[in-house]
Amino acid sequence: MTLPDVKQLLGDLAEQIRPALTPDTALVGIHTGGVWLAERLHTLLGISPPLGSLDVAFYRDDYGKRGLHPRPQKSGIPFDVTDRHIILVDDVLYTGRTTRAALNELFDYGRPARIDLAVLIDRGERQLPIAARFCAHTLTEPLPAGSRLSLQRDDHGNLSLEVKIA
User: Smallest Cα–Cα separation from 93: which of 118, 69, 75?
Assistant: First the structure.
């Protein structure tokens, strides 16, 4: 499978988001790939509020089965989310469970006026009724069972997509 270029997808995603921006719009990235994307979108779109980040490990419905991630990240939202337009950013939308966990954690910080989801890739095969308002690319064919599609960052900060077949 040939995967699209991340830099092009990021530009496409920024152009989709731009018309929806308001002065109170803030970005919150989901660790890890979503934070990398949110950092770049924050700069590309010139968003004023500082960037927020979430590590949803403790909010996942499969935490008991998966356990703690070996390298947990710190969640932090350095602004008041109450009555704010939040764009939640993730790299890959798959089952919807990570997004659900992020929504649960986000509401622990307050009650936003609106939350939109922005993803680089929608790979389909949803298990929950969750959809992205902003999506740079949708896979047209399902990946093999057990495979994982993820965003990778090299030592120079370059981003690329990778499929790992189980």
Answer: 118
